[in-house]
Amino acid sequence: MDAKSHYVHQAHHGRTYQEAHKSRQEAVTKPLREYHNDVKNRLIHRFSREVEDHLDLACGRGGDAWKWVGARIHHVLGVDIAPSLLDDARERIDIIRQKKPDHDLTAEFMESDALGKHDIEWGQTFDTVSCMFAAHYLFESKESANQFFENAAAALKEGGYFYGTTICAKRVLALLGKEKEYRNSVLLIKALWDQPSKFGSGYTFALANTVTNHSDEADDVEGGATEYLTFFSVFTKLAERHGLYPVRDLNWSFGRNKRSRRDTLFEREPADHQEAFRYFQPQFCAHPNSQEQGDAAEADNGLLSDLEKASRLYAAFVFQKDTSRMKRSASDDGQPVAQRAKLNA
Ligand SMILES: C[S@@+](CC[C@H](N)C(=O)[O-])C[C@H]1O[C@@H](n2cnc3c(N)ncnc32)[C@H](O)[C@@H]1O
């Protein structure tokens, strides 16, 4: 199922947003959701703290709205392809306004299917741009991926950060091995390609109790939206073509802070040798007060290890806009080879 049809059907079936939220909180994938929220929260706090204008691409239900408030962002524009999710996002902002009337966040939400199709007239530039758990939908074709980076880069101020989270093609392929399908207790991946390639290699992906599943409240895994293999080397090359570069010497240590007990969020080394990416490093352990033993404890451990496998498919990325570097490398590329060879001699 394409991403738009899938996410349009992700409305909360007439229940209030609070009811849907409660059910998800109780869900089996809670540790994964908490860890993924921690990752997003720390990225937002690190890169968008107190910024004036932030753009969130593929914002979904605005699940990061409280994080924006916490980071004291002044204004956020959220863009998504699915109108029903944007209604939820607006409702969430209204609830925040009631609960915390003194915060100064303003947010607008825009429905658009143009992200991978044509230039979006932003009408302004943003200090930071994020894209959480969604860039992999844009790798449907080379054109769509290129357009995605064009739109992200055009929206960003010079020196601004483009950051987010996405899923790694190489890890998906490793999990599948020689098979066309991978299934564990929380995750279902079905390859739709004959031969995997840089663009347009679709697979259905469903993670229990998340919006990727056929019902985001279901414990069983079924269906799922079509995502596309996203190779980090290809991602980096396209990003650079649009003036977005990995940040040199970025401190990727996201150690403990007052809200998080985790020692480290990410693997130390660049993911797939790409400097702008770091793999998630979740450590889901059994609850220390759990009285369960024997079969129940074993089932818990099996589930936690399945959750870890799902989470370790993901990485965070951070790029920074540097148009002058892009112009320099474009003019280098434009040099006749002989002349460049002379210059390099
Ligand atoms: C897994 S959800 C992530 C939502 C949100 N960023 C978060 O982290 O909670 C993926 C989102 O990508 C959106 N999406 C998929 N393809 C899109 C496109 N071409 N343009 C805009 N949004 C898209 C879906 O509608 C959905 O809301």
TrEMBL record:
It comes from the Eukaryota. Residues 27-322 form the MRNA cap 0 methyltransferase domain. Residues 1-26, 324-345 are annotated as: Disordered. Its EC number is 2.1.1.56. SUPFAM superfamilies: S-adenosyl-L-methionine-dependent methyltransferases. The keyword Transcription does not apply. This is mRNA (guanine-N(7))-methyltransferase. Residues 16-26 have a biased composition (Basic and acidic residues). InterPro entries: mRNA_G-N7_MeTrfase_dom, RG7MT1, SAM-dependent_MTases_sf. Keywords: Methyltransferase, mRNA capping, mRNA processing, RNA-binding, S-adenosyl-L-methionine, Transferase. Residues 1-15 have a biased composition (Basic residues). It catalyses: a 5'-end (5'-triphosphoguanosine)-ribonucleoside in mRNA + S-adenosyl-L-methionine = a 5'-end (N(7)-methyl 5'-triphosphoguanosine)-ribonucleoside in mRNA + S-adenosyl-L-homocysteine. It is an enzyme of class 2 (transferase). One of its GO terms (cellular component) is nucleus. GO terms for biological process: 7-methylguanosine mRNA capping. GO terms for molecular function: mRNA 5'-cap (guanine-N7-)-methyltransferase activity; RNA binding. Pfam families: mRNA_G-N7_MeTrfase (PF03291).
